[in-house]
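--- STAGE predict ---
source: upstream dedup step, 1 unique chain passed
mode: sequence only
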Amino acid sequence: MAQFHFVEDYEKLVGDLIATHPIDEAMAIAVGGKYELIGQIELDMLKEAGLDDGMSVFDLGCGSGRLAFTIAKSGLDISYLGTDIVQALLDYARSKTPDSYRFICHRDLSIPAEDSSVDIACAFSVFTHLLHHETYIYLEEMRRVLKPNGRIVFSFLEFGPPGQWAVFEDTVLHQKRQTTPHLNTFIERNAIAAWASHLDLKVDRFIGGWEPVRNNVPLGQSVVVLRR
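--- STAGE serialize ---
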């Protein structure tokens, strides 16, 4: 099986972090920092999308378990499955969450779950680092595993918000220096609407990356909620 660009990028990034930082710090930096705060913001967004007791959640690119840890701490009774491409991240996530939570190292453009088995599928800070056709294939898979009326919640970068423009400027600077650490991809809302239409999904709402979510803190990336 061919190895995708993002596997090599993130194995190197995580390996370097583990080698140069204490493990908790490395695992927080690996998913963008502010481990508990951002995890809580993500959970708040899932709750707004309808997350409740008894539901099943699929977490694409779950990383070191920021969202999983927060869900577990909240006391919600859910069935959780998270996948990532870096085993070290999954090992850490498993150490922070209940034994009933499942974590799978999965490096293909697919989801290891049955058809119509998931209430909410989410991807935070994942499609921001993929090519558009890779994102679309994952969305096809999310559509497949969703139950009727299920939700897809994912974050994305767009050019409008000042904070996200800074990500683009930083990426340009790194490219000029030939030090780009990984791919940063921007997705415009009309592209998401087109993908949703082709996948027979409805756009419930967009949330701008600058909009405060919890304690006046924004996520930093925009978010869309899609409904089957």
